[in-house]
Amino acid sequence: MSQLPYLVPGWILLVGIYGIVTSRNLVHAVVCLSVAQSATYVLLLSVGYQRKATAPVFSDIKPTRNVVDPLVQAMTLTDIVVGATVTALLLALTVQVAKRRGTVDPDELRSLEP
Amino acid sequence: MSPRGRLIVLAFGGTGLAVLFILAALGLPGFGGTSHPYGQRTLPNAVARHTPNVISSINFDQRAFDTLGEELILMASALAAVVILRTVRAEQEDAAGEHSYGPAQVYDALRLTGYLLLPVTLMTGVYIVAHGYLSPGGGFQGGVILGSAIHLIYLSGDYPALARIRPIPVFEAGEALAAGAFVILALGFAGQVTAMNAVVGLEVGCAVVLTLAKFFEQALLVRKQT
Amino acid sequence: MILQIAIGLPFTVATLLAATGRWLPRVAVDALATLTVSALAVLLGVVLAGGDTTVWLGGWGEGVGIPLVADEVSTGLALTVTVVALAALVVSWRYFAEVQAIFHTLVLLFTGAMCAFVLTGDLFDSFVFFELMSVVAYALTGYQSEEPDTVHGALNFGIVNSLGAYFTLMGIGLVYARTGQLGFVAIGRQLHGDHSTMVTVAFALICTGFLVKAAAVPFHFWLADAHAVAPTPVCMLFSGVMVELGVYAVARTYLTSFAGAVPAGAVRVSLITFGSAAALLGGVMCVLQRHIKRLLAYSTISHVGLLLVGVGLLHEDALAGAAWYLAGHAGVKAGLFVGAGALLNRFETVDEHDLHGRGRSMHVAGTIFLLGGMGLAGLPPSGTWAGKALIEESGGHWVLALGVTASALTAGAVLRVWLRVFRGAGPPRPGEAEPSQPDATRHKDAETEFKLSRLPWTMLAPGVLLVLAGLLLGLVPGGVIGRAVEPFTHLPGPAPAPWTVTGVASGALAVVLAFAVAVFGLRGHVPRAALLHRLHSGHVGDYVAWLAAGVTIFGLLLLT
């Protein structure tokens, strides 16, 4: 089953979603969101993986060597920066929720529906 | 919804997602296979443009537009931290000098290690930014190191010392101008890998400092008005 | 080069403002931002006049590069975005206690991101700019961070939308693995005739993020929370254009990349299911609201649902109708938010019952609500009417019923607000201050630095103009819209004509029913519908569970 590794990102995404849904703490929920996001890194990198190939950096190897797909790595790099910044932004909002509402438990936050 | 209802909905959704992922995985080409058409096409371009680090060539040359979006996301979230974590009407900000925040009573050995590590870490950051076209690394990774480096001052000294060496307006302007330079480079002059790495390093470094500064303020200085 | 300049302009000025805003006087910041967006509108107008163009960025060609695709639909949409952004900036001239120039920077980034999102011809880039758009939107929602509801709404918005975007990225990864391509057109070429299950799953995942943005039911929960708390100029952009971009992205992804792979029948069924659910649920929730901004937010869900039905019919006339509808709705809805902002500014509340009869002297804002209600109902010759007529024409009887119901409910709610607040109609209900509602929801700060003695024209004129534009858009000859949609859909057809007997009749019927809904709402008691309120709980765990369930439903509908 050479497809088996592709199930790992699916599993990570599900774990992240389960974490957000059952979370009792918004900081935990935001971190679970980054867990869910790491599924995308794993998927992209496993898509680009090639057996017996090395990193796509030609400063010390011949350009004829087999290398793994550099494109998914570039995409992952972009994705990581996106993930880090989104996490920072959501944590900033969480800080303010904690200050204004005095709790970070989603169950204790009053509904926004008047 | 009740926690129970929530779990029922999740069980339905989760099962469906699991099935969808399995169906998707079955249709993918075998793990570790050799077919990477797009990736293969980028390789000769990178070599021809003398950017041995193919990932840098993609990020700053062949697909520089992606990175443009990403730099702006970074800038936007740093600005968001400034605006969301500002001191609002019902709060006041203590002067940093009022309390000696941070581990002011640290061991001399720790203090010394921090001060010794600071130049080394900064140098490492600069090295990683500068060699981004050649070896793994580049503006993002180097920028994070640069931005984190000055927080060694906080770990080995105190908050006022950190606050003195990072005037917020300067870092704000630096971050924004670097992002602006990147926009112009990416749209008009893509392929200037070294210059683009440098501005990205500057932007990431400034954004890290700025965002952390806002979190520090909230944690250490901002109090509800009494 | 003109496209690169158009994309680069708002971003560059945004960075300049972010760098120097601390030291610039407010007038200069306002002027610079407004001029930039005006210049962008001119540039996009030039591009639109020049016809279809594709530009490969950085001089890299088909193989590895990224294209900007300016067809008439994408450029027209970018132009709509820009016009609404211009109006939002003018409204905000006298609006805010400004933190440096960050509000203007964010609005410019938002405008640029939306333009880049519609113009890019690359799937991964559409994820990147989707995220840029989203991050800026979270920041703008949470702008007034001293309000507890604001930060809570922004956080829900952020978590749900980001998760949706990650689903999209998973789908992009799958498509990349299968095809080795990222360009919309290149993927379409590779996937042509590939009917495997895996491609369908990838399509479902990619669309998830876009459907979250488009607030299709059950992905819609974040929208009302975010719209109810965001500053008024931001609501104009959210409801007027941002949400609609999700529908555009679904249409584009399917028609350009997946049309040859995923069977049209399955796509039709699933999009119409999601769209109808949103149109109906949004309409019902809209009538149940007393918080005016929240009411308008639910009406957006309903109307975007209709838009999704228009796209889901996968018929050239319906798509032309959707384009018309989008533009008309953008004008009307953005204008209505200007009216709501005027109320908030005067009375520091947007609660319909608290405002009973207090708007009698506000003639301009009242006119906005009356005309806006007409626009939502689809009074001929509004853009919403023309678009809806075409969608109903190609969809048959049940789409007609759906369209009339959704318009009547949403417009009825707006007209009820107009009657109660601006005409003083209906019995007053002053003693209804429920103890469960602390003043935070009912009493809002006026969003301005200090209370203005009277409303400046800049806070009303854009609303009047936008509503009028929306109301007259149906007069644009159908040929223009038909031609614009043709290259986008590859479905040639005769120029669509909304001026049919059925079209006019359904518009008139919706207007009459809307008044009936309004009067019924004034006289009779609005049902409590506790179950529906409980579903929209503000609990982020609920929203995420529903998101997962929505993806499953989407998959089921596509695969069976």
Report on the structure:
- The complex is a heterotrimer of chains A (114), B (226) and C (560).
- Chain A has 114 residues and is mainly α.
- Chain A has helices at 7-22, 26-48, 70-101.
- Chain A has 3 helices and no strands.
- In chain A, helix 1 (7-22) packs antiparallel against helix 2 and helix 2 packs antiparallel against helix 3 (70-101).
- The longest helix of chain A has 32 residues, at 70-101.
- The radius of gyration of chain A is 19 Å and the shape is elongated.
- The model of chain A has no long low-confidence stretch (mean pLDDT 91).
- Chain B is mainly alpha-helical and 226 residues long.
- Chain B has helices at 3-26, 37-48, 54-62, 64-84, 108-130, 139-149, 152-156, 159-165, 168-188, 193-221, and strands at 91-93, 222-224.
- In chain B, helix 2 (37-48) crosses helix 3 and helix 4 (64-84) runs parallel beside helix 10 (193-221).
- Chain B starts with a helix and ends with a strand.
- The mean pLDDT of chain B is 88.
- Chain C has one domain (142-428, 454-559).
- Helix content of chain C is 72%, strand content 1%.
- Chain C has helices at residues 2-20, 26-49, 72-91, 102-119, 123-141, 148-179, 184-191, 197-213, 221-229, 232-258, 264-288, 292-312, 316-347, 363-377, 383-395, 397-422, 439-442, 461-472, 478-489, 501-523, 530-535, 540-559; strands at residues 53-56, 67-70.
- A two-stranded antiparallel sheet of chain C has the order 1-2.
- The radius of gyration of chain C is 22 Å and the shape is globular.
- Chains in contact: A-B, A-C, B-C.
- Chains B and C meet through helix 1, helix 2, helix 4 and helix 9 of B and helix 1, helix 4, helix 5, helix 6 and helix 8 of C.
Protein chain pair with the most extensive contact, residues per chain = B-C, 68 and 81 residues
Distance between the termini of chain A: 53 Å
Average residue pLDDT of chain C = 89
Task: List the helices and strands of chain C in order.
Answer: HHEEHHHHHHHHHHHHHHHHHHHH
Q: How would a crystallographer describe the biggest sheet of chain A? A: none
